[in-house]
Design a protein that fits this description.
The structure is a homodimer. Chain A is α/β, with parallel strands linked by helices and about 625 residues long. Chain A has 19 helices and 29 strands. The first copy, chain A, is globular. Chains A and B meet through helix 5, strand 7, helix 6 and strand 14 of A and helix 5, strand 7, helix 6 and strand 14 of B.
């Protein structure tokens, strides 16, 4: 009976979506959220074994209905928290499909977040400058106001022409100068004192790459340009929409959501900022400048700018040029009068993160054509040649983030990240070597390529029914990567026909984008000197897999360069160097943006690009290549 | 029995202080706050006759304890309002001494608030400029961002070099430009677009004189410099301290009070602003620039700057120079990116309101000496001669605002404002001709002068016991201005020996301040070409009374000039003219401030100045003058 119960097929009463890890699956009747998470391999912490006493399994119900709070939960949460959906996963039973936010502190292992990338090569020339000051204390015969005393000392000693002190600095100046015995560092930006710090403090800067899914943060020493700490975090907006279009739609429907999404991003950055400071032994109030890059939608959501016009043709940003905004106007907790610099956007779907990537990869210095792309839900691609930049934006969709893929998930513990098929044997590697729970982007790409090379899938993407691991399940073919037996009774991890179609759409978007650029610039594929692949997903993929399925053009592998988080690197450059900011403006001014919707025959190109295999596209036709070509 | 009860002496159980009208007095046992107000002549509205049903008598208990709320009050107020001390005066019985805030809407008649003054004579040259713009709508072939489109059009059409759009303007730009069909007015300030308005809107400005007691507001048309509306309001901070020192002390004790006081001032200005707009047919979002003047403490409280160092020797402001702050950083609800300009302060106790007064009265254009003073709780006095300004600040105290005077009150309905003594007959005039309930500043000054001229008081300030209206009451002499019979059974209104001493201190402060200035500049009294008296109190006083008691020097009356609210006028000038702002900076730079505490022999001068009568002070000695001198 017990054995029978254990092995009987699970009947899913409802589907639970665990964010930000991106794992979703069925939850049986009378199964708690914690039990469901365990079944799906989502590592939610639990110390007390589901008694509701350790409070380690806190989750937030974003949508869907669940059982009423238990007395334990009433003790654990405030009324406000309960109202916001906070619950203990072990005490809560879903009564409908649910979307949950599992905060980092409730996870047993952190998600893999890429922050590494190129290292900076510019000499520091930040927009802020720290001046050491020593003043005389005021007296009845010299009762000059505190701020005037500071400005006069500053201007006289250092031959400056400062005229302003930030209002928030004025609010603390009297107490601080007295407690520091009239000695301080004044941080000057243009003609304004934006911060005062104790005599021997650091002058720190914060660079942020605000991605749709992940946030990368870098704490820099502005004096020497060195990176003091780097850290990633999930973008908590994910719980309110996995891709930017769904977030924009929420904001269009309810303006309050715009306020919420802005707050979530800022809270996450503030937390990241505290963590970075703790790691490097600095203080958030020593951060006197910040640079934030992101795609245009993230840029707008972060600044709480209007997004409706971004989502409607002709897809116009509220603003493209570089901005400088007081950090406090955004809710960022750094130095009192510090500014946030935002690099310029290129278009509605090509943002400052792409500019930052072009800046970091120094593509402008080359003569021969370079293709630079950052693969994500939206993939921006530039072809740079002779200092001219042509850019497209492709809707590559969430497949590479694990979205719309049956066993897809983000790069977290237990995700299959590498995969080889050797006849009927499957070899795979999971993140942290944990038992497999799903498959993340790089694994999905490998799977597609291996299935194609093993002739399980034909060039049109159809799964053939001649491999022992192919089965027909719920009306479609699927390929079993890890069987129920291999998972000790848990459901098999498979790649379905539907998954393959999703991946074809994604890879066709990228390949056809490259093709449009080549045709617009009159280049042949072979002319491409280098293909620069930036971003987390781009770092982990096997390039040969990407070429094998025709996502990338069939060039020698040594022409590909995986550069990691180049957008973050560009943010760092812009943070420490005014010259880099000027360079970013120059890059933006040289960009010719092509709206794919307006390209003739784009659909035909897209259809060709959806085929698997190594091929060239010429005059709208596919030329298949042999392995040696 | 009934008659006996009516005429029996009132036994005051506790003292109630009604603010902002400034009337205080005893409350009998079992007497409601409304009944007490009526006894004291404070005009609180009541329609239902004390049944608790009309809700016209709302008051706020600031300190002290009162009876528990009645069911009627639970129905009238929210829990939060009750927590904040809001009550119905007719339902509430004090159980200790109390301080109440009676809001304007609960008063039967408004308080007299002076807003009139000199009229502007400068040609408008405001710091903002409105440009009319017509743009093309974006398209797929011209998908330029909204803000970039606006800036480019602006810079090309009007040959400008604008580089910035305020972040709050960016937040509305997309929706507004579309709803206005790509036509708008852009309000430009330096290189920044601070507002966008519909094609045919006004460009308005707001000038505020933020007094310790009263706030005067002016709505101006920035294009032609005309005053569209003027209005006064009480400063709601009064309920939290009548004078600046007590407010500063509250903030020093509890920083939260600083937040509260700032909010109160801003709320009052926002309400004033709405009223002014309603009167003139404008909208707060059309107000694209504001100027605020006030004394240094009010300036600091309004900006939420530190005040502790203001209260301690050497009495140093946090900042003196002129400031420009985004209105939103202060909570002011005007145009999205509008700035508030704050004129410079001179010293800890000589603020921007004094600079504004010097600006408005054009004293810098004269060669012969001019004395300019603004009488208040603190009286700032400048002696201007040959373009040099010497300034002192005198602690004249609250006596002229009715403070520390037994029957003193502010200038509201029923206050005695003029008074003549003709033997044993008293003639007086009350505000609005209402039955007398107390005596306000100008009446107090008249009373002192008349009592001195009638020889009821000698030159040392002693009340002599030979006038029929002098009585000994509770251990001191007092002079009966209005008897119990004349008040139909209500307590007599009197001037006590203690009142006279308070007035002597107040008037000595002013006279000795003038004396210090004359000595510092080597001037004789007769050299003074003009004495300019600004401010509400100064407008209503009888100059001859002020001269008779020796508060002002014995000059011919035609050398005195009462200019009304000159500080408000100065604020208006600074609002509409950049040249006036520059002039204010020049004035401030020319001021030599003398700290009275550091003047040798100041005490001796002060003692001489406390005597009543017409006299000159020379070498620390008083020279009495005959009436003809």
């Amino acid at each position: 009976m017990t054995t029978k119960a254990k092995t009987k097929k699970r009947v899913s009463a409802c589907t639970i979506n665990f964010e930000p890890v991106g794992r979703r699956g069925g939850c049986q009747k009378n199964e708690s959220l914690l039990a469901c998470a365990r079944q799906l391999g989502v590592g939610i912490s639990s110390i007390c074994g589901g008694q509701g006493t350790c409070h380690a399994c806190k989750v937030q119900v974003i949508s869907g209905s669940v059982s009423k709070p238990t007395p334990n939960e009433y003790k654990t949460f405030t009324a406000q928290e309960l109202k916001e959906g906070w619950r203990l996963a072990c005490q809560t039973y879903p009564t409908s499909d649910c979307k949950l936010n599992v905060p980092a502190e409730s996870m047993t292992t952190p998600q893999r977040l890429q922050v590494e990338g190129l290292e900076a090569k510019v000499s520091p020339e930040p927009p802020t400058h720290a001046y050491h000051l020593k003043m005389k204390a005021p007296s009845l015969s010299a009762p000059q106001a505190d701020a005037d005393r500071l400005l006069n000392t500053l201007n006289q000693r250092h031959k400056l022409q400062c005229t302003r002190v930030d209002i928030d600095v004025l609010r603390i100046i009297s107490e601080r100068l007295r407690s520091w015995k009239w000695e301080c560092q004044a941080i000057v930006r243009n003609d304004e004192v934006i911060a005062i710090l104790p005599p021997k403090s650091h002058q720190l800067g914060l660079a942020i790459d605000l991605g749709t899914t992940k946030i990368a943060g870098y704490l820099m020493n502005l004096n020497n340009g060195r990176t003091l700490a780097a850290k990633g975090a999930m973008n908590p907006q994910i719980s309110y929409g996995e891709d930017i279009v769904s977030r924009i739609n929420r904001v269009i429907k309810s303006p309050d959501e715009g306020v919420l999404l802005q707050k979530l991003a800022v809270q996450a950055i503030n937390e990241l900022c505290s963590d970075l400071c703790a790691e490097a032994g600095g203080k958030p109030e020593e951060i006197v400048e910040a640079v934030v890059v992101g795609n245009t939608a993230m840029h707008h959501l972060f600044l709480h700018l209007p997004v409706k016009q971004l989502a409607l043709s002709p897809f116009v940003p509220a603003v493209s040029r570089a901005l400088e905004v007081k950090a406090r106007d955004l809710g960022l907790s750094i130095a009192h009068g510090a500014y946030v610099h935002l690099l310029p956007n290129i278009a509605g779907f090509v943002g400052a993160d792409h500019v930052a990537m072009l800046l970091a990869t120094e593509v402008m210095q080359t003569e021969r054509p370079i293709v630079a792309l950052d693969i994500g839900t939206n993939t921006e691609i530039s072809l740079v040649s002779n200092g001219e930049v042509t850019t497209v934006s492709c809707a590559s969709g969430p497949a590479f983030e694990g979205g719309h893929i049956k066993y897809g998930m983000r790069a977290a513990t237990g995700a299959i990240e590498r995969l080889r098929i050797d006849d009927d044997k499957i070899q795979y590697q999971t993140i942290d070597g944990a038992p497999p729970v799903g498959i993340c982007g790089s694994g999905i790409l490998d799977a597609l390529s291996q299935l194609y090379l093993a002739k399980v899938i034909d060039e049109s993407g159809r799964i053939m029914n001649r491999h022992p691991r192919v089965r027909n399940y719920q009306g479609q073919h699927e390929f079993i990567l890890v069987s129920r037996e291999e998972r000790k009774g848990k459901p098999a991890i498979t790649i379905t026909q539907h998954d393959v179609r999703e991946l074809q759409l994604a890879k066709a978007a990228i390949r056809s984008g490259i093709q449009v650029l080549l045709e617009a610039c009159g280049c042949a594929e072979d002319d491409i000197k280098q293909v620069i692949i930036a971003g987390a997903f781009g770092t982990y993929i096997d390039i040969s897999s990407a070429v094998a399925i025709g996502m990338l053009p069939p060039l020698p592998l040594n022409r590909f360069r995986q550069v990691g988080n180049a957008a973050g690197m560009g943010a760092k450059l812009a943070l420490i160097s005014r010259a880099s900011r000027a360079e970013a403006r120059v890059i933006t001014s040289k960009v010719k943006y092509i709206e794919l919707a307006s390209v003739p025959n784009f659909q035909a190109t897209f259809v060709q690009a959806s085929y698997l295999g190594r091929y060239r596209i010429k005059d709208g036709r596919r030329e298949k290549l042999n392995h040696g070509d």
